[in-house]
Amino acid sequence: MVYAVVRAGGRQEKVEVGSVITVDRIAADAKNSVSLEALLLVDGEKVTHDPKALAKVNVTAEVLNDLRGPKITIHKFKNKTRYHKRQGFRAELTRLKVTDISAQ
């Protein structure tokens, strides 16, 4: 069983080959693929966490689609002062499918 912990969009995700993850919006290259930075690699019984060894690890993923997250409504209100402020937010997201985890 081979899996890696990668840094994607300010968060850490545990990924295997074939797993689908949703991260903050990432721009892909011409081949529609993205390379992710590995923080930890587990290959059976062998665990790699050394930065020099992890520099050789390549985690590639293909971009499935770009999407927007759910609408978040922010409402600020202060009692007895007639103050209220309404604001909305939708995150720009990218769905990725991990295609390869390789260590040279």
How would you describe this protein?
It is built from 1 helix and 9 strands; from the N terminus they run βββββαββββ. Strands 1, 2, 3, 4, 5, 6 and 9 form a 7-stranded antiparallel sheet that branches. It has a two-stranded antiparallel ribbon with strand order 7-8. The model has no long low-confidence stretch (mean pLDDT 94). The chain starts with a strand and ends with a strand. The longest helix is centred in the middle third of the chain and has 4 residues, at 51-54. The protein is mainly β and 104 residues long. Strand 1 and strand 2 form a beta hairpin.
Classification by helices and strands = mainly beta
- How far apart the termini lie comes to 18 Å
Helix content: under 10%
Number of strands: 9
Low-confidence stretches: none
Averaged pLDDT, please? Answer: 94
Order of helices and strands: EEEEEHEEEE
Strand content: over 45%
Biggest sheet features: 7 strands, antiparallel
Number of helices, counting only DSSP H or I runs of 4 residues or more = 1
Keyword list:
104 residues, mainly beta, seven-stranded antiparallel β-sheet, two-stranded antiparallel sheet, 9 strands, elongated
